[in-house]
Amino acid sequence: HNLCFPFLLVDLLFAAAAMRLKLAKTLWGVDDASFVDRWDAMFARIRNEGFDAVEAIPLTFNLNPKMFRQCLDEHGLALIAQVHTSSAFDAEKGHYAYMTSRDVSVHKSSLSTLVDVAQGMGAVMVNVHGGCDCWETKDVHDYLQHAVQVAETKGITVSHETHRRRILYSPFAYRDCFLGDSEVARALDNVRVTADLSHWAVVCERVFGMPDSDAENGVDDWWPRVLADVSKRAALVHARVGFGEGPQVPDPTAPEYRGEVDAHMTWWESVWRTRAGAGDDVAWVEPEFGPAPYLWALPHTRAPVADLWRVNADMAKMVK
After folding, report:
1. Residues 251-275: pLDDT tens digits?
2. What is the pTM of this model?
3. Phi, psi of 271, deg, nearest 5
4. Most buried in the list 16, 49, 252, 262, measured by CB within 10 Å?
């Protein structure tokens, strides 16, 4: 797969700034993560494939927190905890509700609790799916001001993902939050974000800066300003490639998605260049292709069109 130029450039940038790229492995869609007796072999495989950390939600590590932490330590892996504010798990029904409330105060309280849970597991970072997409900008600001206080009080990086259904679901919601002409917006300089920009591609039904997309939709002259701010704030890159009709191409090595892959690489490159210039010594990146319905599946049989572990391994090779 001939995508060497962007990666060579990133390598040169890292070398110049002495910034190391660290890989995180998502446990989303990894069947073995649901079975405690498979964790040791799973973590061994993850470490042997060159990953430095795993990202997991409390639903996974709470199966046996002590064992999960022990396996991480034995295999030299860090933990990035992914949390979902106002989520709830019904143990009797085995049902996980991703979001249960639209109330700002509920999400603020939930965030505080979930950060405590993450710290109790020794997480190096908390990646948050936070708040709700229906909120007005003033509510988003209220929530994020609380989030900044939590991060500073707890002494841990709290990174807010650009995820659908949540406060940063679109580049325009992001722009209104951080780049608006208000005293509050200017006071949010310490907010960190997780750049999962594949979500924005499907929300806006176009891939910003991709020649074919620009030819069809026109040039988004607002995009460089938004991308520059994302790059300034990014604590983690979720390396998944989206397209105009979905958050995930079926296989990033497929030549028909070369344009989308190149565009996303350009965005991620902007993050790494900016963070290297800011003096960071580590950049976290996580190939985060997920299972169905993100991963395409055949109708009736639900057979996946690609092997998810291999897809994420291929993405790891591309960015490494």
Report:
1. 999 999 999 999 999 999 999 999 9
2. 0.94
3. -60, -50
4. 252
